[in-house]
Each structure stands twice: as C-alpha cells, then as structure tokens.
C-alpha cells in the first residue's frame, strides 16, 4: 500500500509545494516502524501566504450572516460525529490514546462544533441610557480579526476543535498550526472544514515546525490574537513576542495538579479517582493529577489499593481493546518520564511500582505507570510537570495541612478532593487557587460547554470553551448616539 503525502490548506486549497526534502513522517507510537501518512512541511513563506489570505478574508467574514456560520459549524460537527469510529482509530494510531478515550475525544470535538453552531445565533449586546440627555448607548462585540491557533499533540482533534469552532463562530478567520506529532487528525479536520462552505481564506492550516510556521504566526502584524495550548516554556515565549506586537493571547500551559484524599473518603472511590486522573491517557493531560496528598489515617490503605490497581493496568497497543494505558507519545517524552523516575529515586522517594520501559520488538514506547511514596514537598517529582503517568504521593496530617500542600505550587489549572465532608469540600471549592476544582471526581476530564482554564503559571488570558470563549474571540465596542 502506498502511503499518501498530504499538505497544508491555504486560501481554500490544499497546496502542494513539491519539496521532497521537507517530508514529515507521522509514526505510530504503538509501532514506530509504521508510517501512517507523510506530510509536506510548510515553512515561513507559505505561512505568510496563509496569513495574508486570512487577512483578506477577514472583513467579509466578520460581516457574514450568522446562519451561514451556524450551518458551516453544524456541518463540521455532524461529519465528525458520523465518522467517530474512523477518526478515533486514526487518533489512536498517531497519538497512542486508547480507542475508548479517543472516541470520547472525537465526540467532544464534534459537540464543540455543534455547540458553537448554536452560539453563532445567540443574542448578545447591551443597551444603556447615557448620563447625557437624549443619548443612547449600545455595547456589543465584534470579531478580533485573524486568529493564530497553535495546538498541542495530546488532544489531536478536541483542542483544535474547541479553538477553531469559537474563532469561526464569532466571525474571525483562522491560521491553524497543529503539533507536528499529530498532523493526521488535523488534516482530517481541515478536509472536513474545506467542504463546509466557508469562503476561501477563512480557514487555513499549516503543517510544519514551530521554528518557522509557529514563529511566523506569533510575529506577524496581521495576526490579531493567538490561542495556544502547550508547554510553559513555549507559552512564555509567545506571551513575550505577542506583547511586543500588542496581540491578545490565550495560553493554556502546564499543571502540577493536586488531588487531596481525606481520611473520611470512600476508599474505592478515592482509588478510582486517583487512577483515572493520574494514569489514563498515559498521564499526558495538562489536567492530570500528578500529586496526591493523603491524610495519615487512610494513607497506607490507599497506597496499597492504588498500587494493586496500578499493577493490574494493561499497558499496550492503543488499538487493542484490552489496553488500559497506551504508549507514551514519542521517544523524547519516554526519556523524560524515565529521567524523572530516576530523579525521584535519587532524591529519596520510594518507587512502589512501575516506572519502567516495557521492552518489545516493535520498539513501542510502552511505559508502566509509576507510583512514588515517601515524597517530600521539595522533590522535583512533586514540583515539576512530567507529563507522564508518574505519581507522587505526599502524606499529611489533616485537611489544613493538605490544603496548604495543594496550594504550594506555581501552577493552578485543576485541583481535586475526595471526601465525604461537606465542610472540607466547600472550603476547597471556595479557596483553592486552581481554575477548576473537582469534588469526588478526577482532576482530568472536563465538559465542553463550560469555561476551561487555570491561574498562575498554568494559564494566561480569558477562558476557553462554552459561552465564555466570546471574551477572547471578540472585542467590545461601545457606541453613543444622539437621538
Ligand atoms: C481534560 O482533562 O479533559 O492539554 C482536558 C490538556 C488540556 C485539556 C484537558 N488542555 O491536557
């Protein structure tokens, strides 16, 4: 079977450059010898063309009929949902997320488009009476213009969807750069969008590296706003460059999300919440719990049961129905996980189970979920984002100490608590400085119709998703008129 070579989508067409020196191979982390598809890499020049096309298309799109936008978004959402099995398998092959989770992600992508199809028709705006006689005031929102979207590899279809859908919904044009590790889902999404009836230039997608495509997007004076999800270091660079160019930014970066387990918790529930939040999706979620803060009365029972459940997880090929934990996304991330396991041991934590590469003929990046106890708050495995299934358990005396430990971080994305105490749960919800708080639920796994985002080093700018996305994708206009 010949492997297709695909390309970027610019100004209403898939553009073939014919540059055989710039080929990106998309490989399956469950079987790195398997090339899923090949892509021709875009560079600086094509990115400039895409930005120019988006700029040309912006004024008409900003004035477009909301019914046209609603119909286009609904078409995209329907097709994603209709092709859920096929897209989930593609996602599992290129990113390593198990099919069950990939199906959930594809559904979320489809539903995001359908949510914003409705949102395009939602009434908005305010009317005021002026403090001056016979003057009326209208306040309403207008599109930002051209949005640069830079997406990570860990949610290859849902994150692009929840950025692209509101951008188009609120009348913006888009220049989208997916992560180079996951071009296939991005290409499939772009192909669907290409048939949704949007005018040329409204949506553009560039498959290529951060140093050329990403860099052109963040520096271009024709980009009005940037929505980014990815690493903290890249986020900081984008924030600095965007500030120079006076661009609006929305950044979703790292996390070191705590889960508190109190003595009064239901043990089985606590273990399930910890397991799912920490290890599912191979721990590759910015919302994953990577610190579990456990009070002394339940600590030993909790650790014993969590270790038992963790050892029973099946690590394997993302396409196998029996797999619980798919491969790590690539060799670099695998190396990072293994390095942190070494650091954890060197700094004196106890590795209860996991933390090893599973050797296999195919060279798949299989890694067993790691559970550390005897953790101290100054250890690196407790403080730094690992982005893998590596969990640090900290023992504390009581809720007060647990709360202080949970707060002891520069990040602030998601935080959870497992307890039967209404009082402690309520205190945690009100006082945690995380952007999202979960009670008796995993820190990872969120809905698509409500605001998503964090505080501190985790996020910058206004919230993603739900109706709150309007704040980022529009600007406010205030008009005064004499009667
Ligand atoms: C989730 O936990 O359901 O990159 C979503 C991430 C987040 C999305 C997590 N932006 O992991």
- How would a textbook summarize the main sheet? 7 strands, mixed
Name the assembly state: single chain
Contiguous low-pLDDT stretches (5 residues minimum) are none
CATH architecture of the largest domain: 3-Layer(aba) Sandwich
Number of continuous helical runs: 15
Count of the separate structural domains: 2
Strand order of the largest sheet: 15-16-17-14-13-18-19
Portion in beta strands? 15-25%
Which molecules are bound besides the chains? 2-aminohexanedioic acid
Task: Provide the helix percentage.
Answer: 25-40%
At the fold tier of CATH, the topology name of the largest domain is Aldehyde Dehydrogenase, Chain A, domain 1
Structural class: alpha/beta
CATH superfamily of the largest domain: Aldehyde Dehydrogenase, Chain A, domain 1
Q: Which whole number gives the mean pLDDT?
A: 97
Q: Please tell me what the overall shape is.
A: globular
Per DSSP E runs of 2 or more residues, the count of β-strands stands at 21
CATH uppermost class of the largest domain: Alpha Beta
Family: Belongs to the aldehyde dehydrogenase family.
Protein name: Aldehyde dehydrogenase family protein
Domain Aldehyde dehydrogenase: 24-478
Organism: Pseudomonas urmiensis
Short description, anyone?
By secondary structure, the chain is an alpha/beta fold. It is 39% helix and 22% strand. Helix 3 crosses helix 4.
